[in-house]
Design brief:
CATH architecture: Roll
Radius of gyration: 15 Å
Helix content: 10-25%
Strand order of the largest sheet: 1-2-4-5-6-3
Largest sheet: 6 strands, antiparallel
Oligomer: single chain
Number of domains: 1
Length: 141
């Protein structure tokens, strides 16, 4: 994972890739949510809930792994361009295994978009249409 995307602990939110199908534009990752996650210290004491924005970030990181495996992308870093139709339908708590699925709808040299779905035991936790932009070389220096 760390050889494909730049994220590191404590912000690396994908544990492993379970399925990768470039012909379908599909990738599925997984995050085992443990009681020791850094964000549970304050969100919320006595009622640990994984923040929705971190569920979206985990989906975006899964999409980043897909993109990094495509020819010509390598170590280029994508940045959020949009989050459309985002819905949270189930809380995610310690002990949950979060399945992270992305189906790409568009992938160009500098822009991409994918339908993202996070589930726990087949139950939808979060869904959104995520888009990203890859800045020109040197723009982030």
């Amino acid at each position: 994972m760390q050889d494909l995307i730049p994220h590191r602990w404590p912000f690396l939110l994908v544990d492993r890739i379970m399925e990768y199908d470039p012909e379908r534009g599909y990738i599925r990752g997984e995050k085992g949510v443990t009681a020791s996650e850094w964000f549970f210290q304050g969100h919320f004491p006595g009622l640990p809930v994984m923040p929705g924005v971190l569920q979206v970030e985990a989906l975006a990181q899964t999409m980043a792994v897909y993109v990094a495996r495509q020819p010509g992308f390598g170590d280029r870093i994508g940045l959020f361009a949009g989050i459309e139709g985002c819905r949270f339908k189930r809380i995610v708590q310690p002990g949950d295994r979060l399945s992270l699925e992305v189906t790409m709808e568009k992938l160009g040299r500098r822009f991409g978009k994918g339908r993202a779905l996070a589930t726990v035991d087949g139950e939808v936790a979060c869904e959104a249409l995520l888009s990203f932009v890859i800045p020109p070389e040197g723009a982030l220096a």
